[in-house]
User: Fold this.
Amino acid sequence: MLARIFAIFSARNREFLRDRGTLAWNIVLPVVLMFGLSFAFSGDGRDEYTVGVLQEAETLDTEQHPFLNTRFIKFVVVDDESDAFRKIERHQFDLLVQFDDHDRYWVNPDSPKGYFAERLLLQADAADRGIIEKEDISGDAIRYVDWVLPGILGMNMMFSCLFGVGYVVVRYRKNGFLKRLRATPLRAFEFIVAQIGSRMVLIMIITIFVYTGTHLILGTRMEGNYFTLMLIAMLGAVSMVSLGLLIAARITSEELAGGLLNMINWPMMLLSGVWFSLEGAGPILQAAAKIFPLTHILDSARAVMLDGATILDVMPSLLALLTMSAVFLGLGSRFFRWHQI
Amino acid sequence: MATALEARNLVKHYPGVVAVDNVSFCVEEGACFGLLGPNGAGKTTTVEIIEGVTPATSGEVWYMGEPAGPRFREEAGIQFQNTALQDYLTVRETLEMFQRLYERRAELDAIIEECSLQELVDRDNRKLSGGQRQRLLLAVALVNQPRLVFLDEPTTGLDPQARRNFWDLVQKIQSHGTTVILTTHYMDEAQVLCNEIAIMDVGKIIAQGSPDQLLLEHYQGLIIEMPIADICGDLSDIEHRLLDNLGVVEIVSNDVSASLQALSPQVTDFNHIKIRQANLEDLFLDLTGHSLRA
Assistant:
């Protein structure tokens, strides 16, 4: 039995590794995303507000007016009053300020962003005069790249496992390769185990490679234990491959397989918190997200990487992944069909 | 000689179609058994039921005196009509992969030599020609030193030279004592390779026996074949067969001289007349009323 599993396992590995396009895509996609996001969210990041400053540049005193040091606000110096008023009217400026003998500001009452910029200004002004005391945030802030790294690795794992197994099995069935295997002593369970093993090894190598690269270059945060993280990744990969096999268990059309895989991929990607936290989402949506293996992978991986969670802390997620794997694998084996009828 | 394989009352129903209708036959050990018939006759379905890849509606398959089971899977070699192989693997890697699926293992180098794949062992599967690919698929069917080999229309789409090379290969395999079950719609192939044939049409076996025995049973004379264009008169007094699609008329004759004499008033030109022995194609035509390759 082991010889048969190993035969299929190693043949599938060779096929994947020699398909340069797919291999490159599996490695390049997460790397490009990580570095792209790191660049996009590094430094001061994208400005949220645009504030016009109505005075000559050399007269600006940022020490006397700390509002001018506010992050995520783009300050644009203008000296033409009518031009500045026009920009306020047309929402090109969210706010217009003038700091001279008589400090003044203008705001468009219909501008939502102007409203918030005004609040910031008033708060800064009040703090400057010592009326409101500012409180600093304690500890290191978590960068977006730290938060998003598990999401990108998990998303890559999801695509690789679902398409790399589900789609490939449907192709094998459609072109008759599975039928040929059916005529050998190979059993369905052995074939499935070989597929899971092959994809798990390959995705783990790629995930470790991408993680190590981004960790070394971007200095991403790792508060917990690497063994726990590996365990999460391995169980996550098994659950995803099993899901891919379940979807592909009987389908004979690549188009249908692609549609079904996308139908699962996209909600999973959007609801599992790959890019943004679901903290603000409603409780029903948050509960619904728990049906996806990716949610458990990301929740537990983030807990380990960002909060230093132990294996016991993430045990509920690990158990959920184990249960999902067993259910998907059982149903996949039960309904597996070697060839199209 | 012992019976290697026995199909007992095989039936396969698809919605609205009886693909295999109570088919039974025995194959002796070491024989080459041919299942002949046109496309859609049910021969591939019959063979796939025997191979265990298509479930039968009813019927049984026995191998070496017992119901076909794990032993059959271990000892049978199969070449399907259309089989895709795994991409990006070389010829040798493909053979190694299939070999590892069996407990019984043949010497790979010997198979590679037998199937003339020496020059191709490091070539990607996807870069093989039609004939090379068929040789590889045959080699795949041999990796487990099979006692029984199924070849499903193995020469379809091959050029004449590649077909003859493939026949040589099959004869070599058979010479080792391996039982061969061949499905084909090429009558010349069956005549060259098979000791026994079964002709199938619309899911049933309509004739069975050795090619010579079947021809002897059905034909005592020779066949006179002439183009329709060379006939000017009425042939209603002479028993004949009109093959519109080939543009010829055929007459079965026990006395060729007498038949030619009777024909002479109706024929304008004798230069295109052929006189030949009956073959399996003629037999099929007589049995079913339509051509094997229709």
